[in-house]
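Holo prediction. Input below; ligand is 2-phosphoglycolic acid.
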Amino acid sequence: MSTAALWVEGIRACLLDLDGTLVDTLGDFELALTGMLRELGREPLTRAQIEPVVGKGTEHLVRTVLQRTGASAAPPDDTELARALASYHAHYARINGQASTVYASVPEGLAGLQALNLPLVCVTNKPQAAADALLRHLGLRDAVVQVYGGDSFARRKPDPLPLLKASEALGLPPAQVLMVGDSSNDARAARAAGCPVVLMSYGYNHGDDVREAGADAVFDRLDAVAQALAAAGQPGARAAGETC
Ligand SMILES: O=C(O)COP(=O)(O)O
Ligand SMILES: [Mg+2]
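Structure of the complex:
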């Protein structure tokens, strides 16, 4: 990545997506959905079928899965959806973290961003309580100052609201807050909020090419994002140990 890239200029904080960016959670989605589908008397889906549906929040996931596994392709009615969601949440709470792993470059990437004194905030579409519990389980909770979930605000990504609220809480203009995600959902939210955005190539992008998602840059490793920011000599960030 060229150090002349504009997105690196003036970054003072980072918003981090969770599923597909920090943690590979596909196994957890598979376990919880399989539990729900069994309870509803339906056949489970494969991971390959589940992956493109992840990233737009729980209701979108469950609604789409019900539609794909139903006798007809009709959308579920409200009662059916409510029953499925209750089952899914109960299964997810029980298995949360059992089949999830932190991506290889993430510990180094978080350490690299922290070494630049950038506050890190998790902005995910996963429900807040589940996201918080997962980060704790994986020993990542202390790396971020705040966790916002898909139920934290009136609207979730790709709406800009969570990113605008997070920037406001940090006391920074969105142009100085970098969104780090894995999908067009993150890129759309960032563009609408006025945040620069980079995407990780290893996550879930709804089955589409992440390089076509409209990000400022795409990286294969999270520590490469920190290195690019460090190389640009961030004005708002000081190297670890450096004093004012
Ligand atoms: O839809 C989800 O639950 C996952 O969302 P995330 O990629 O925003 O973390
Ligand atoms: Mg994601």
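Residues 67 and 74 are 6 Å apart (CA to CA). That is the main takeaway for now.
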